[in-house]
Amino acid sequence: MIPPDSHDYRTSHQMTGKGAEYDARFRRNRHRSMVWQMERRVLKGVVSGLARGGPVRYLDFACGTGRVLSFMESRVDEAVGLDVSADMLGVARTAVQRAELILGDLTDGGMLTGRRFELITAFRFFPNAEPDLRREAMRALAERLAPSGRLVLNNHLNAGSLLRRVAAIAERAGRTHSMSHAEVEDVVRGAGLRVLSAHGIGYVPVSERRFQWAVPLVYPLEAALAAVNLPGLRMLAQNIVYVCGPAV
Description:
With about 250 residues, the protein is α/β, with parallel strands linked by helices. The chain has a single domain, classed as Vaccinia Virus protein VP39 (Rossmann fold), CATH 3.40.50. It has eight helices and seven strands. The protein has helices at about 20-30, 30-50, 65-70, 85-95, 130-145, 160-170, 180-190, 215-230; strands at about 55-60, 80-85, 100-105, 115-120, 145-155, 195-200, 240-245. The protein has a seven-stranded mixed β-sheet with strand order 3-2-1-4-5-7-6, sandwiched between helices. Helix 1 packs across helix 4 (about 85-95) and helix 2 (about 30-50) runs parallel beside helix 8. It is globular. The termini are far apart. The relative contact order is 0.15.
């Protein structure tokens, strides 16, 4: 197994055909679909709150095949999707209606210079990225966040989840690539931001890779737990959605 720090996540989705393959795999995965349904509720709440304060310019960082971007573009005044993979953006072009799609690396420093966004999303990026890339990306996103803006990111590989705890007891921890709550807090603070709220999704030890047949059975419980979002319980969720804003 490749250690988290030794791979280059920037190049991991750039091969020809990766976009179509990723999109198809995501759509077929019952657990991912369940989680995405609950993530959408969080996103709708965030954008509704921002819209009450005026126009919302939106950036979907590492937008991939456009799943999040296509859901959000009709809910904001201006939508931009940015990704380093031309192949992933090729699929995104078939998913979005009016969003601007940009190929490039935000951490290079020259992308989107002078532009600020009231809302930025970064889904399924940070836990996959190596620590140095996490820090570079978070700093770049913070620089492009409007003074009263919100950055919404998810940790879909929560190291403290009930699933990982059960796997550790059974000595079946699987992939070591994960991110803890403390690591999320650290990278957010390091960019001059702070976590305003956290939303746990996916508590039952059913995963993207195992027991897909059980997803319809656990959905009512998962939906109820996500709606309640108890502070002491949400750190056990497989996926945590963080809403962040400027520290001051």
